[in-house]
Every structure is written in C-alpha cells, then in structure tokens.
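QUALITY CONTROL LOG
STEP: pairwise intake check
CHECKER ROLE: data steward
CRITERIA: each record must contain a sequence immediately followed by its structure tokens, with no blank fields

ENTRY 1 OF 2
RESULT FIELD BELOW
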Amino acid sequence: MSKTFRPWKIDEPLLLPAMVQDFVAADHLARFVLSLVRGEIDLAAITASYDSDRGQPPFDPVMMTALLLYSYCCGIYASRRIAKACRERVDFMSIVGFDAPDFRTVSEFRRRHLKALGALFRQILQLCETAGLVKLGHVALDGTKIKANASKHKAMSYERMEKRAAELEAEVAKWLAVAEATDAAEDKLYGADKTGEEMPDWVADKKRRAERIRKAKAELEAEAKASAEAKLKAAAEAQRQREAEGRKKSGRQAAPPSTTPDPKAQKNFTDPQSRIMKSKDGFVQAYNAQIAVDSQAQIIVAQDVTQSAVDSGQLVPMTDAIETNLGRKPEQLSADAGYCSEANLEALENRGIDGYVATGRARDAVDDKGSDDDDVPGAPNPVSGSKPQAEPKPAAAPTRVEAMRAKLKAGGHASPYRLRKQLPEPVFGQIKQARGFRQFLLRGFDNIRAEWAIVCTAHNLLKLAQGWTLSAARLQAT
C-alpha cells in the first residue's frame, strides 16, 4: 500500500533546533571560535566604532569577527565565497544564524577593521601560552615568498620608464598637433554640438599612463637616494666605532653608493610596494612573509612581512618581536643560512640566546664528513677522531660564522638545528597547501602585513582549538 504524504500548510511552524548552534556538534570548531571571540578576546578596538545610535543597526561586530576568523581557519578568504558559505553551509550558519551578511558587508568589515583584526594575533598567542602550547624552549625562523595581488608583467624597469614615457608623451603631442591643424575638418566630423577639442579615450589613457610612469620613475629615484644616504650613514657610524676602538679598516676603500637607481630596478603599477622575488616557481611579484614557530606545538610566536627578498635583515626584528609578544626571550633559536651573518650572530649572543644558524646549505650544516675548507683549526677530525695539527699561533680568532659552523658539526644530527625544518616548513605547508593561502588578496604594504597577521592568527586558533579539545578529552578520561 502506497504511503500518502500530507501537504505542508503555510501557517504551520517549521521544526527548527532550539539554538542555531545545534546545527553543528558541541566540539565543532565553529562553536569554539564563536565562544572564544565572545568570552576570551577583547574587541574594544572594533566594537567602539559602533556606539552611535544613528542609522541602521549593523551586523554584530562580534559575530563578524568570529565569521572572518573561522573563514580563514577553513581556507576561505574571498568575501564572495564567505557570503556563499553563510547561505549554504551549516557550520557557517551556526555563526551567522539566518541573517547571512552580503559579500560587500564582509569585505567592508574587513577593510574597515583590518588593523584591529591583525592585532588579534597577540591575544590569541597569549591564550596559546596560557593553554601550555608555548614554551619558548626552541624557536625556528623562516620566510616564504607569497604572491602579491599584482602581475609581474605590470612592472617596468627604470631604464624602460624614461623611454616609454617619452614615447607615450610623443604620441599624445603628435595627436594634439594634428588636431590643432585640422580644426575645420574635425568640426564637420564631430558635428555642431562638439567643439572638436575632446580627446579620444585612447589619448587620455596614454596620457595618464605616461603620468604614472613618471611618478614610478620619481619613486625609484627617491628610494635610491634614501638607500644611498642610509648606507653612507651606516658606513660613517662604523668608521667612528673603529676609530674609537683604535682599529683600521683593511682592504681597498669602497666606492660611494650610487644615488641613481639601477637601470634594471623595477616598479609595479598594480601594487607598487610589492617586489620581484625569486621563488621555487621562478620570479614572481611577491612579498616575503616571515614567521617564528615554537617547538612545543608549532605555534607562531612572531610574524611579519617584508619587501626584501633576502632574510638576513629579519632575524633581529623577529627575535625582538617574540619578546614583545610574550614578554620573554626564547632559550634557543634556529634559522637557515639566509639569516647568517656576523651581525646577526652577535645580536643573538648579546641577547643571551643559544643560536643554531646554518652557515651554508642545509644538508652540509650537520654533515659529519664536511670538506677540507670547512675545518676549523683545533677541531676534531670527524673521520679519524684525532685532532689535526694546530698552527702554533693562529693569525686571528675564528669569526662567529666559523664558530657556528664548528658548533653545528660538533652536534651532528643530534643538534637542535634539526628542529629548523620540523617547525616553520610544516606550518608554511599547512597555510599554503592545506588552507590554500598562496596569494594575498589586498594591496599595499600596510594592508599586506595586517592580512598576514590574520592568516597567522587563524593558524594559532586551530592549534588552540586542538589543544583545548585534547585537554578536555584527557580530563574526561581521568
């Protein structure tokens, strides 16, 4: 016998859960993020801007903050995809309820509070420390190139700028000269209602492009001048320090830095603050994203973005950022050869941090065999176990780089340096591969720094959720 279905009447109430959070399990990440944002995070910097009673009531800023953080945890970054998920996915509905924000609302909220959202990194990090996920016993540094929201084909070299700007200006001038000489013909061509002096769109575009090229050229010149002045100031300071210590600089006198840009120096017109950088995928228009990862639970304890393709200038700022974020220094710190320099190793010594910084290729850093030119006078021979014949009186004490090379070899594969690959590289893999963040959405250096801070906050939030879940499971087991 066939079963008869009673039609649903329009005046009958829908059977809905008692709470919209019941759409997901009690231990679901969406619930964790929402409860954490409501009860553990200070959002005064965001909520204070909504004190006015005028206008239409906005979406709850607490809910919007939780929505953005949860979206980044799920690897969803575009505002349109976030808005779509709010309409189609029950985990997103458990946060926004049945009042899904429009994609413009999501985008505007992120744009308006970008700096405050990036500042949440420190609060989440301190919660991770409270939960016992941060020990600062060993911290590893690394950087990765992340593509900017700009094409490298929209960049132009300084050498090409002058030539191309002149070409565009010549085209515009030529057209204007022809237009002036043929006013009568143009009156007949354009009609009585036009003056004949209107410039076609292509002329205006080329004129504007020439102006942008001139502006980019001036920016490169200003950057080259500022860089030269900084180098001269640093050289003068080093000379004063040598004179105070009674030392003389050996070798040939270096040529003064040039105040004119390198002919191959480039400026991008889409995101002028991004730079051409070499990555595993070749040369890309990108930024250099930096992280410092703690060994306890792969928590990011410091993060930043730089416009420099090299990492050497980031060791000291990142190390100091760890102390700024958590109020104490790490006991040990490891980094690859990109961070190695006499100045950086000296900075670690001055801060009382036990450093493990590669002095060459990673596979050679702890190689027991080594090469003859890597041997340090007085160090044991790793093959025979005997000491080589030491020179009677060495000409000079080993440099810090030479001492670091000997330190890594002495530790071998049991050296704490081995943690360097086990910490930041998996974190980059989780961010770029698992959660698909391979390109910044925003443009401009300040916006990029805040966006990277949100990405790192989401990573720590996932680790915090996992740590709290495991702690609760252990408590139930006991």
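ENTRY 2 OF 2
RESULT FIELD BELOW
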Amino acid sequence: MKNPISNLQRVLESGAFAVTAECGPPRSADPDVVVRKGLLLKKCADAVNVTDNQTAIVRMSSIAASALLHSVGVEPVAQMVCRDRNRIALQSDALGASALGIRNLLCLSGDHQKFGNQAQGKNVYDIDSMQLLRAVTDMAEQGRFIGDDHVMDAPPRLFVGAAENPFADPFEYRVERLEKKIAHGARFIQTQCVFNLEKFGKFMALVRKKGLHKKAFIMAGVTPIKSAGMARYMRDKVAGMDVPEELIARVAKLKGEEARAEGVRICVETIRKLRRMEGVAGVHVMAIEWEEVVPQIVEQAGLLPRP
C-alpha cells in the first residue's frame, strides 16, 4: 500500500471488508447533532458519509458537518451534489474540503429540488456527476482546474468516489454507467440499498465480467427496515428501489420493537451474504435517523473490531 490518503482508502486497499455509515446533518445550525451522531458511529465505521442537502431539503452544509466530524476524530466522506453549485463553486468547495482535512469526496448529481422544501428554487446542474468526477480527479492528480492551464502548487488530497444504483432501469445499462464513472476517476463506489440479493448478484456478475471490481472498490448499500410501512414506501415511492415482497412480509407480521428487530436481522443476514459475494469490498450502512442501531448491526455481522 502506497501512502493512502484516507483511512477508508487504507482499509479498502488492505483487503479488509470496509464499513461506512451515514450521518444526515440537521435542519439547524446545531453542531451537537452532528457530533452526537458521529460519536455513535466512530468505532463501528471506517468513515461516515455526510449527506449534501439530501432529498433537496435545506440542511447544514455537508462540508461544515464533515469538518465537525473530523474535529472529533471521525473520518468523514463529504458528499457533493451538482444540483446547487456551478463548476466554480464545486471546484472551490473541493479545495476547501481538502484544506479542512476532509479526505473522502463522493460525487453525486443530487435529488431534484421539486422533491424537497424549496421546490420553487432553481437548480444548477452546470456539470453532471461524471464531469464532477473528472474535474475533482484532475484537480487531485494533476493539480489542474477545468479548462485551465494553471497548475496548483498544493493540489487537494482526495479519495474520490461515486454512487451507483444496480436496480434502476434499464438494468443492462447500470454496469456501463458504472464503467464510465470509474473511467472518470471514481476509486470507490457506494450502491443503492440492496434488498434483492439475487438481482444484485446478477449486477456483480456483470461487474466481474468487465473486471470493474479490480478498478474500483464496490461497497454495497444496506438499510435496516423499521416497519412494513417503511419498506412499502421505499418500494413504491423511491426510484430504483427493489424491496422483495418476502422481506416485507417478514416485517409485516410484527409490530413495534419486534418489527424493528426483524429489520435488523434482515440487514445482518444481507451483510453476511454480501461479504461472501466476489467483488464486494464492503458495505455502506444507511440507517436513516436510526444511527444508534449501526453498532449493533456491524457487531452482529461479525465486522468488529474495525481494522
């Protein structure tokens, strides 16, 4: 291993099965919310994603929240979306993130503003997530900005990642899209939540056929189900989400704490199966506003202590 930029990169390159989790910033300026969530996840995750105004709802800035995590010894993965910034601001924020000690950057398009609380707002989308990947990678590896001959004397130090949804249509295009993201500079990939293991297995077979698992680290997303209602909402309302009926039925016959415990069991079972799947380098645990359950999931999945 040659001088990894971040702890997440170190773990992935060591061949250990990596674990990332997620911290949603608050809809306020309260730093304690971020710190509390981060400390819950500190010992069970190699790095913690900080979402960037997810679902197009105004929240504390991803970079600011990432800096708060960094200040208490929690490694952040700052998410950056194209929805809200033009290429000037995106490149500027990438420099700022690196200057603050943030070493992991996940490049995303971002949810359309019509889904959030600022539907009347104007989106930007000056560049897309592929172009953002290329821009950030060129900044980090060549010290160059978009369309500029200037070479930085201190380029940003960033481990660059992207997201992929193996379940969106058309299915066959997902691997081609992944291949393009890797070609544009993605070094790690975090996927949409995996509930349909059979379909995800088919996706990974196509990934292996192209050798993409050797060019980037594929981390499978997992989410504990709190209730049958939550599962049905994800199935019916979240684009590209595939929740098999048999999993919903397992939770639907239970209520309250028993239903949540079953959701945790399903999540742990999924992680154990993913761990045996060739080409899966880790898991990204998305326990939405349920961060306190992540240590339990990681422990029951046999992934503690972290390397």
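INTAKE CHECK: passed for both entries
DESCRIPTIVE NOTE, ENTRY 2: Strands lie at 18-23, 47-50, 76-81, 104-108, 159-164, 188-193, 217-222, 280-285.
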